[in-house]
Amino acid sequence: MRAAVIVYPGSNCDRDMEVAFARAGLDVTRVWHKDTTLPAGIDIVGVPGGFSFGDYLRCGAIAANAPISGALRDHAARGGYVLGVCNGFQVLTEAGLLPGALLRNAGLKYICRTVGLRVEGASVYTDGYGAGTEIALPIAHHDGNYFADPATLDTLEGEGRVAVRYTDNPNGSARDIAGILSENRRVLGMMPHPERAAEPAHGNTDGARLFAHLTTALTAA
Amino acid sequence: MQEPAITEELIAAHGIKPDEYAEILRILNRAPNFTELGIFSAMWNEHCSYKSSKIHLKKLPTTGPQVICGPGENAGVVDIGDGQAVVFKMESHNHPSYIEPYQGAATGVGGILRDVFTMGARPIAAMNALSFGTKDHPKTRQLVHGVVEGIGGYGNAFGVPTVGGEVRFHPAYNGNCLVNAFAAGLADADGIFYSAASGVGRPVVYLGAKTGRDGVGGATMASAEFDETIEEKRPTVQVGDPFTEKRLMEACMELMQTGAVISIQDMGAAGLTCSAVEMGDKGGLGIRLDLEKVPQRERNMTAYEMMLSESQERMLMVLDPAKEAEAKAVFDKWDLDFAIVGETIPEDRFLIMHNGVCKADLPLSKLSSSAPEYDRPWVATAEPAPLGDVPHVDPVDALKILIGSPNYCARNWVFEQYDSQVMADTVRVPGFGAGVIRVHGTDKKLAFTSDVTPRYVKANPVQGGRQAVAEAFRNLVAVGAKPLATTDNLNFGNPEKPEIMGQFVGALQGIGEACLALDMPIVSGNVSLYNETDGQAILPTPTIGAVGLIGADQEPILGFARDGHVALVVGASAGHLGQSALLAEVFNREDGDAPHVDLEAERRNGDFILAQRDLVRSCTDLSDGGLALAAFEMAEASGVGVQIDTDETAALFGEDQGRYLVACNFDQAEALMVAASHAGVPVSTVGRFGGDMVRFGKAAAPLAELSALYRGAFAGHFG
């Protein structure tokens, strides 16, 4: 199974995501933001964390219009899998692949800490945990306060598209939402960093199951 | 544009002393023009020339089998085996941070990261040591918020994990905060890049952000004392752009791979002037610059402004002309400005041309290696008066005062604003002892710590200097790392005052002795003098940053205390209360002598811990607040109560050096005692871990209550 990780000039979790994909057994390629196509046969595209274009404007707003974005949209439209973490989640909302927006944290401060999460919606990303499982993952962001209008939030909840929720909301996110799925459940955007809790050296392996189950599911598909 | 005439006022405004100006006249055999005067002021100020400190810095131990490159380059380089090296340095950005806390701190981080990647090392860890005034001082809260946000804003976006640091508060920093930034990077030992230019007629290449008028005269400002005109100095603080820095770093890494880079120097203090002079001076060459080719952000910039601008995120390189096309492709990929702005020339000459007009023509070596040096008069610090009586205090009450104080409460409010895990190699995040980072792709780990106890240095500079190194040594040992080497960031007051110079000389003596005895040579550093406001000096603050190595086949000591574990103290306790945290925080007293550091015992006890690492579950050094604070911190980090048998003030709060608190099970404790008696290391059982209370003798409080106080205090003081 093949994964691509998009690299924007200010990405800084690209290597981390690449390592997590590779450890789970995926064949990983890096794709430069100035490219206009993805390599053939890509099953999943990773949109990594970082500060894609400095994020002096809205986080992810410039990245959503990078040359590679057309290919990313096409991949998603074809039913391809996409995982956006942190800045990647912000890029996916700016690109219109996921609804809502990530606003400045309610406390107005950057937060880096490990937080409690409850896994909910069914997907290749979350099924390894089982709905209702509580896990802990690191967050590290200044703009992770998920916002959408009430109707969108109702839809997300009604369709079981809230992938993970904070057990103790750190940033003011609407309805404690930490990560959401697209309608076809193949695009996941999440603020917590599973790739930072993916091997014993991290002191926390709660993120490893996401990558492991993803690989298993893609291989079986 | 008409340039100002060189008057006595103009010379003084450039921070050039009359005797220094006489030396300039002697060197040139004529009067300098305006641009030349600016260049001299940038190169000869304290910040760039180390003119007051150089003769003392030469006495520090800087060599060892592990040292690949000691002081003098952008950062020190230390061997970590397997053909790899760790490259690190610590540098101050004190004055800019006081004037404009966010940008001052941010560009401090940017500057130290550039020092590291200039040498070919990808930054893998950052720390910062911060000293502020008291919490009630009107500026402190704003400085704390601004500095912490600035550090986070830059480091988080750049993408380097911040894994440690210090935050302290003392009235001596009310008018002059300290921001000391540390960075470490990883490089191949045979892939280190240096600043010495070589080869005549080679292109001098400018890379990175455009040059603006920001920071003109910054290095001169950093070498001046403050007074009430400080707000007027705000325009001399530069503005940071971590996004450009990140691209600059990636571009440099790629460029270095192509073999195009002959020499490289970042533009930090005194920007284009200092970087060009360093490259030429180290290579024994001259440099010609054509300033109209410099990428400029603002219109009509003069030669003076361009030569003195401290715009950030810029690099100067000498490139192999044969690889120019490959180099350009890398810059284009990362959308960075790239321009050939001059060339190396054979004669000892710094020639600055602007639109065909000569704006400066100076003997280059006289600007740097032949800059003035002073052996300033100094007086040794008087021996401290003996410690008066210390009244008995309820130990739990005293602990509550300590852990609720700005100085000893938990630092989560600070550390959680820094990304400590980006790069996904962080093994231990900040909060309890040294930070630990895995060397990417290996099982080796590096530990990082930053330490100094300024009130000790003030009371007894020699012992305080020793103690700063010894505490760094212990913090590395406590996570199972072998201490490798040290960087020093020496923050002091006005060196023209003999008593301040005496602090400097004494502290350096102590640092040198400890680095030698503990085999932690100084490989890089920075001196920040004139940290005074209206004549009031800061506490002497020689911050020690240190790096240790945990081998691929070694287990780090990262465990926690568990219910039933024995609490042991390794090292001898005599109950030294002079200059202790207890005195300062509980009794508002700073008297007595600093604790003396027995360097042989330090070495022996540290080596013992490392040799017996398999018997140690959790370990922390005993420093400020003695056994009481260490036992609480270990219990708090482990989420388990602790019972310390004694309730005696000196035993609990004494700050004798060379000590560690160890938690392990009963069998391990017995084995440790046996090993200790063979090694001649004092080890004593002081209590045990378990339950949900913190007890000192009969005094007790619930751990949960103390933990809430400890974790909530910082936000309570400053949030």
UniProtKB/TrEMBL annotation, chain A:
Q: InterPro entries annotated for this entry?
A: Class_I_gatase-like, PRibForGlyAmidine_synth_PurQ
Catalytic residues (positions): 86 (nucleophile), 193, 195
**PROSITE patterns reported in the protein's UniProt record:** GATASE_TYPE_1
| Any single Gene Ontology cellular-component annotation | cytoplasm
According to its UniProt record, which reaction does this protein catalyse? N(2)-formyl-N(1)-(5-phospho-beta-D-ribosyl)glycinamide + L-glutamine + ATP + H2O = 2-formamido-N(1)-(5-O-phospho-beta-D-ribosyl)acetamidine + L-glutamate + ADP + phosphate + H(+); L-glutamine + H2O = L-glutamate + NH4(+)
Molecular function terms in GO for this entry? ATP binding; glutaminase activity; phosphoribosylformylglycinamidine synthase activity
**Keyword tags:** ATP-binding, Cytoplasm, Glutamine amidotransferase, Hydrolase, Ligase, Nucleotide-binding, Purine biosynthesis
**Record-listed E.C. numbers:** 6.3.5.3, 3.5.1.2
Note whether Aminoacyl-tRNA synthetase occurs among the keywords.
Answer: no
One biological process term from GO is: 'de novo' IMP biosynthetic process
Annotated metabolic or biological route of this protein: Purine metabolism; IMP biosynthesis via de novo pathway; 5-amino-1-(5-phospho-D-ribosyl)imidazole from N(2)-formyl-N(1)-(5-phospho-D-ribosyl)glycinamide: step 1/2
Cellular location(s): Cytoplasm
In terms of HAMAP family, this protein maps to: PurQ
What biological function has been recorded for the protein in this entry? Part of the phosphoribosylformylglycinamidine synthase complex involved in the purines biosynthetic pathway. Catalyzes the ATP-dependent conversion of formylglycinamide ribonucleotide (FGAR) and glutamine to yield formylglycinamidine ribonucleotide (FGAM) and glutamate. The FGAM synthase complex is composed of three subunits. PurQ produces an ammonia molecule by converting glutamine to glutamate. PurL transfers the ammonia molecule to FGAR to form FGAM in an ATP-dependent manner.
The subunit structure is:
Part of the FGAM synthase complex composed of 1 PurL, 1 PurQ and 2 PurS subunits.
Q: What is this protein called?
A: Phosphoribosylformylglycinamidine synthase subunit PurQ
Automatic annotation (TrEMBL), chain B:
Question: Which pathway does the record list?
Answer: Purine metabolism; IMP biosynthesis via de novo pathway; 5-amino-1-(5-phospho-D-ribosyl)imidazole from N(2)-formyl-N(1)-(5-phospho-D-ribosyl)glycinamide: step 1/2
Q: Where does Mg(2+) 1 bind?
A: 91, 526
Positions annotated to bind Mg(2+) 2: 115, 266
Compartment annotation: Cytoplasm
Instruction: Provide the alphabetized UniProt keywords.
Output: ATP-binding, Cytoplasm, Ligase, Magnesium, Metal-binding, Nucleotide-binding, Purine biosynthesis
- For this UniProt entry, what's an example GO CC term? cytoplasm
Any single GO molecular-function term of the entry would be: ATP binding
Name the catalysed reactions.
N(2)-formyl-N(1)-(5-phospho-beta-D-ribosyl)glycinamide + L-glutamine + ATP + H2O = 2-formamido-N(1)-(5-O-phospho-beta-D-ribosyl)acetamidine + L-glutamate + ADP + phosphate + H(+)
- Main subcellular localization, coarse class? cytoplasm
Which segments of the protein form a coiled coil according to its record? none
Q: What InterPro entries does the record tag this protein with?
A: PRibForGlyAmidine_synth_PurL, PurL_linker, PurM-like_C_dom, PurM-like_C_sf, PurM-like_N, PurM-like_N_sf
Active-site residues, Swiss-Prot/TrEMBL: 47, 93 (proton acceptor)
| All copies of domain PurM-like N-terminal, residue ranges | 72-186, 434-550
Which parts of the sequence belong to the PurM-like C-terminal domain? 200-350, 563-691
Return any one Pfam family short name: FGAR-AT_linker
Which residues does the annotation say bind substrate?
Answer: 92-95, 114, 238, 310-312, 528
Enzyme Commission no: 6.3.5.3
Could you state one GO biological process linked to this protein? 'de novo' IMP biosynthetic process
Question: Which function does this protein serve?
Answer: Part of the phosphoribosylformylglycinamidine synthase complex involved in the purines biosynthetic pathway. Catalyzes the ATP-dependent conversion of formylglycinamide ribonucleotide (FGAR) and glutamine to yield formylglycinamidine ribonucleotide (FGAM) and glutamate. The FGAM synthase complex is composed of three subunits. PurQ produces an ammonia molecule by converting glutamine to glutamate. PurL transfers the ammonia molecule to FGAR to form FGAM in an ATP-dependent manner.
Outline the subunit composition: Monomer. Part of the FGAM synthase complex composed of 1 PurL, 1 PurQ and 2 PurS subunits.
Task: Write down the HAMAP family for this protein, in alphabetical order.
Answer: PurL_2 (MF_00420)
Family the UniProt entry places it in: Belongs to the FGAMS family.
NCBIfam families in alphabetical order: FGAM_synth_II, PRK01213.1
What is the name of this protein?
Phosphoribosylformylglycinamidine synthase subunit PurL
Species of provenance: Thetidibacter halocola
